[in-house]
């Protein structure tokens, strides 16, 4: 069954790039640099709790609720430290602004195995490429810093789109930007519902990056599963 694909869309976090270390460790290191002792594990737990609550109350970085994504993140960072026992408001503001900037730089991100080679090969094969990511507007800078931006014709974040995956409207925007019909496009991502199932619901093909041993999760036809990114080429070679 030849997939007559013209467009490939890509998730970023945990598909192409991942954090070099857990958030709690990065946050604790920055606090130490400012003379504050905070336990990384406690910070990690606080962050997960705060991020979850903020995402429920202000979905998609507060889009349409009067929040900028920058303010959304500054609030998350400050509240994570408050929950971990830091009360000094001046210190919290300084920490939040520094960490918000730090996550734009490549020193917090690393490429997943096979990412650079797979993207280069896909471009050589003539596919149009774009990003579809539940991310804020820092993503362009992150991709540039990590030397990936040049692979993509467009970078569509949920903040810019106004819709977050699994909402099909973000995929519809991507198809318009990529000049492809759904059946000519495939999405690659690591999340079953937001990437794999949502792209298929929009009429696209999709592939689920799922490392060996990550078998817990819904059944996916084996030909749609990528144990590593390098497995993609065999699935889509024209």
Topology overview:
Layout: E1 7-10, E2 17-19, H1 23-33, H2 40-57, H3 59-62, H4 69-83, H5 89-102, E3 109-111, H6 115-124, E4 128-133, H7 139-145, E5 154-157, H8 158-161, H9 168-178, E6 185-189, H10 192-201, E7 205-209, E8 225-226, H11 232-236
Parallel strand pairs: 1-4, 1-6, 4-5, 6-7, 7-8
Antiparallel strand pairs: 2-3
Helix pairs in contact: 1-2, 2-4, 4-5
Short description:
The chain is of the alpha/beta class and 238 residues long.
What features would you describe in this structure?
The chain is of the alpha/beta class and 238 residues long. The chain folds into two domains: 133 residues, 3-Layer(aba) Sandwich (Rossmann fold); 87 residues, DNA polymerase, domain 1 (Orthogonal Bundle). It is built from eleven helices and eight strands. A six-stranded parallel β-sheet has the order 5-4-1-6-7-8. Helix 7 links the parallel strand 4 and strand 5. Helix 1 packs across helix 2, helix 2 packs across helix 4 and helix 4 packs across helix 5. The radius of gyration is 19 Å and the shape is elongated.
Largest sheet: 6 strands, parallel
The tally of strands reads: 8
Mean pLDDT: 95
- Cα gyration radius (Å): 19 Å
Q: Order of strands in the sheet with the most strands?
A: 5-4-1-6-7-8
Q: Give the low-pLDDT segments.
A: none
Report the total helices: 11
Q: Could you say how many structural domains there are in total?
A: 2
Strand content: 5-15%
Structural shape:
elongated
* Class computed from helices, strands and strand pairing: alpha/beta
The helix/strand order is EEHHHHHEHEHEHHEHEEH
Termini Cα gap = 11 Å
Tell me which CATH architecture of the largest domain applies here.
Answer: 3-Layer(aba) Sandwich
| Topology-level CATH name of the largest domain | Rossmann fold
Work out the helicity level.
Answer: 40-55%
* Oligomeric state of shown chains: single chain
């Amino acid at each position: 069954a030849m997939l007559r694909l013209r467009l490939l869309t890509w998730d970023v976090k945990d598909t192409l790039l991942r954090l070099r270390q857990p958030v709690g460790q990065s946050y604790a290191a920055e606090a130490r640099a400012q003379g504050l002792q905070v336990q990384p594990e406690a910070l990690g737990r606080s962050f997960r709790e705060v991020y979850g609550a903020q995402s429920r109350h202000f979905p998609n970085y507060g889009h349409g609720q009067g929040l900028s994504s920058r303010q959304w993140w500054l609030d998350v960072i400050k509240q994570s430290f408050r929950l971990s026992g830091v009360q000094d408001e001046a210190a919290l503001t300084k920490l939040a602004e520094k960490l918000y900037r730090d996550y734009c730089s490549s020193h917090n991100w690393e490429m997943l195995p096979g990412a650079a080679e797979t993207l280069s090969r896909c471009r050589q094969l003539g596919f149009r490429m774009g990003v579809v990511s539940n991310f804020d507007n820092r993503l362009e800078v992150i991709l540039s810093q990590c030397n990936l931006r040049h692979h993509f014709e467009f970078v569509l974040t949920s903040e810019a789109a106004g819709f977050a995956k699994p909402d099909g409207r973000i995929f519809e925007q991507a198809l318009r930007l990529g000049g492809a019909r759904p059946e000519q496009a495939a999405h690659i991502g690591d999340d079953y519902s937001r990437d794999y199932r949502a792209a298929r619901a929009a009429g696209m093909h999709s592939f689920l990056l799922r490392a060996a041993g990550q078998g817990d999760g819904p059944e996916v036809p084996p030909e749609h599963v990528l144990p590593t990114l390098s497995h993609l080429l065999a699935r889509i070679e024209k």
